[in-house]
């Protein structure tokens, strides 16, 4: 199918102790909450939002460093557990219950964290181009870079270098703040794939996993590894779409999500 027309509603902010989150909220029906990857912000869901809007209330949540979300002070690593807790606190503050999570890339890892550790709030989860049980990047090298980026006096200069590097790699710099450029590396480096493997095994809610075979950022074998780990999940595989399946196949993904939500 042709990609849906993009949709970008106004953004609101949510003040929590020690952190400001940002989000969009549109539509009526079952609540779907979108968690973007690293780097990522609300606009990464703009092609999926339109078909979701036909039947769901879609809330796009931005975590520290992305969009209008921010955490004051020097950038320090947020563990997978900490990011899951932030999502759970946001759901509570926004009075959202029985939600269906959809996570893109690293956002899918966070979605599973929330689905396992805060299961009472979660109805289902959709993983879009989400890494499998094994890290798809050299963890030691990323931790080395994260240690350098975490040196507070260097952060103002290194943030600009990081933004330039992401731009050269083809990432959109739209909504990427200096904090976001640093946090993309620092948080990814401190993501525990041991904990991710535990969450994969322990997830009990209905899950849809979708990916494209030509994904250059998370190669096909990592998606297939995840599919083998949970053959009981639903799987939606495309030959093309790269790392942005939600952009090029938003209509198909939204249809599959609707069936998943109804099942949950």
The Cα radius of gyration reads: 17 Å
Strand content: 15-25%
Gross CATH architecture: 3-Layer(aba) Sandwich
Element-by-element helix/strand order: EEEHEHEHEHHHHEHEHH
Looking across the biggest beta sheet, what order are the strands in? 1-2-4-3-5-6-7-8
Morphology call: globular
Strand element count: 8
Return the average pLDDT rounded to an integer.
90
Largest sheet properties: 8 strands, mixed
Low-confidence regions: none
CATH class: Alpha Beta
What is the fold-level CATH name, i.e. the topology?
Rossmann fold
Distance between the termini: 26 Å
Which structural class do the helices and strands define?
alpha/beta
The CATH superfamily name is Alpha/Beta hydrolase fold, catalytic domain
Please give the share of residues in helix.
Answer: 40-55%
Domains (count): 1
Number of helices: 10
């Amino acid at each position: 199918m042709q990609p849906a027309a993009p949709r970008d509603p106004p953004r609101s902010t949510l003040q929590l102790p020690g952190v400001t989150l940002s989000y969009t909220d549109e539509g009526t029906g079952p609540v779907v909450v979108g968690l973007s990857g690293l780097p990522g912000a609300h606009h990464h869901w703009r092609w999926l939002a339109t078909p979701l809007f036909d039947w769901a209330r879609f809330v796009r949540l931005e975590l520290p460093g992305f969009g209008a979300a921010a955490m004051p002070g020097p950038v320090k690593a947020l563990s997978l557990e900490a990011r899951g807790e932030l999502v759970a606190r946001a759901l509570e503050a926004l009075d959202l219950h029985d939600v269906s999570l959809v996570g893109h890339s690293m956002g899918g890892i966070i979605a599973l964290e929330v689905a396992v550790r805060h299961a009472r709030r979660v109805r289902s989860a959709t993983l879009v181009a989400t890494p499998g049980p094994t890290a798809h990047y050299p963890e030691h090298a990323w931790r080395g870079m994260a240690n350098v980026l975490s040196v507070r006096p260097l952060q103002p200069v290194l943030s600009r270098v990081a933004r330039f590097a992401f731009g050269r790699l083809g990432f959109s710099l739209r909504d990427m703040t200096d904090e976001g450029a640093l946090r993309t590396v620092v948080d990814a480096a401190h993501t525990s794939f041991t904990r991710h493997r535990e969450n994969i095994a322990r997830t009990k809610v209905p899950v849809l996993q979708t990916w494209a075979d030509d994904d250059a950022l998370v190669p096909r074998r990592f998606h297939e590894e995840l599919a083998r780990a949970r053959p009981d999940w639903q799987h939606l595989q495309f030959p093309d779409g790269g790392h942005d399946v939600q952009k090029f196949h938003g209509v198909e993904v939204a249809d599959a999500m609707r069936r998943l939500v109804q099942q949950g």
